[in-house]
Amino acid sequence: MLSNSLIEQDRAHLVHPVASWRGHEQSGVRLLKSAKGATVTDAEGHQLLDGFAGLWCVNAGYGQESVIEAATRQMRELPYATGYFGLGSEPAARLAARLADRAPGDLNHVYFTLGGSDAVDSTVRFVRYYWHARGLPQKDQFISVQQGYHGSSTVGAGLTALPSFHAGFSLPLDWQHKISSHYAYRNPVGTDPQAIIAASVAELRARIDQLGGADRVAAFYVEPIQGSGGVLVPPPGWIAAMRAVCKELDILFIADEVITGFGRTGQLFACEDEGVVPDMMTTAKGLTSGYVPMGAVFLSDHVYDTIADGAGAAAVGHGYTYSAHPVSAAVALAVLDLYEDGLLENGRRMGARLMAGLQGLSDHPLVGDVRGRGMLAAIELVTDKDAKTPLPAAAAPATRVFDRAWRNGLVVRAFAQGVIGYAPPLCCTEAEIDAIVERTRLTLDQTLEDPDVRAAMR
Ligand code: PLP
């Protein structure tokens, strides 16, 4: 069978991201063959609802003809143009202008990358250059948030606060620091939003003091909703409060909107939910809806001007061969058309339906927490609701819950700590959202029958 030989080729030669390499040799790959709308079809012809939009990226849904046409047209006309030597391309210029127009506040300058990790990495370089240009190179300490994810580059993986991204990699962690997550369900200060905000503000101030004061701290990184840490939604006002501390102390505030950008939480950018304008903002994923790789760093006027004036006539030595790739830019423009011609609105309606549906699962014996905003949501499974006891490691939630959902015709993200994550395409219909919820209920019922789960509940 064709798929068997492909699985063998994959097993023998393809190194998968964030996977156990030996585990992959054992289990092999599930090949996906095609996709349309919110449905993916595997190599055996099984159809599944993609409740996670690939890797929270296919926000516009699969098979959008206008996007395919835009890419084809651009490939035919001009498949590549460098941004070096003062050259450029029409779609890149159009896209930068359109993004600057849509971005919050004075985020008027856009540097294009290939994805999220190099967008974060680029901000680190810009932050450092900025403080050098201001004559304050000693401001060289970075702070991010526990459970945060900021990509997989050597520097970004340090801002990321997930253990498997650190262990064994000898990252430059001596100048990268963390404060606790707002994680409301398991916050030591309780669930009261004001108490959580006050605790985070106090911890950020204390960490800054500990590092020698604001004179030493360059930047603070946040995700408006922490994604890979388990879809952790801060209480309303948290982002604005952290932004205010950074403004007061002259510390750059970087919003990592790689997941939350482009309609995931309802607006084009999640920062807009609280009227926050960061100094820099990173995006990727929904920018091109996953059809081709692209990320974007947004720079505010003052960051841009400081770096530009600091460099003067000299080149700012940062750039990639594929920055502002014309095919990616053409795709992003077509995807933006879709968002603005109804997908954002549909996503808002479907997001409300998804949240209501998931809330309806709260009475299930395994559901400890339901959280989310827009088309970004999670449920956290526990074996004891009062004690908030996580699923035991023996129940292997990351694989077993994923497998059960898969067999029920649903793709979700199953986190190792027993969290199920949802980020469906914004084009979902009501029937598809309802099916996501129903297939989740079935998956939960089957998980309840897992002997390792039952043993932990006794
Ligand atoms: N930042 C955030 C918040 C992310 O969620 C991700 C990826 O999931 C990244 C950065 C890295 O993006 P990429 O995987 O495109 O390099």
Walkthrough of the structure:
This is Aspartate aminotransferase family protein. By secondary structure, the chain is of the alpha/beta class. The chain has 2 domains: 31-63 and 342-457, Aspartate Aminotransferase, domain 1 (Alpha-Beta Complex), CATH 3.90.1150; 81-324, Type I PLP-dependent aspartate aminotransferase-like (Major domain) (Aspartate Aminotransferase, domain 2). Helix content is 40%, strand content 16%. It has 14 helices and 16 strands. The protein has helices at 2-13, 21-27, 53-56, 65-77, 90-102, 116-133, 156-159, 193-210, 238-249, 301-311, 326-359, 397-407, 430-448, 451-457; strands at residues 32-36, 39-42, 47-50, 109-113, 141-145, 176-179, 217-222, 252-256, 280-283, 295-299, 367-373, 376-384, 389-390, 410-411, 413-414, 419-422. The strands form 3 sheets. A 7-stranded mixed sheet has the order 4-10-9-8-7-5-6, with helices on both faces. Strands 11, 12, 13, 15 and 16 form a 5-stranded antiparallel sheet that branches. Helix 5 (90-102) packs parallel to helix 11 (326-359), helix 6 crosses helix 10 (301-311) and helix 11 packs across helix 13 (430-448). The mean pLDDT is 97. The structure holds pyridoxal-5'-phosphate. The site of pyridoxal-5'-phosphate (PLP) has 14 residues, from helix 6.
User: What about the largest sheet?
Assistant: 7 strands, mixed
Just name the CATH architecture of the largest domain.
3-Layer(aba) Sandwich
Query: Percent of residues in helical segments?
Result: 25-40%
Task: Please mark out the parts with pLDDT under 50 across 5 or more consecutive residues, or reply none.
Answer: none
Class derived from helix and strand content: alpha/beta
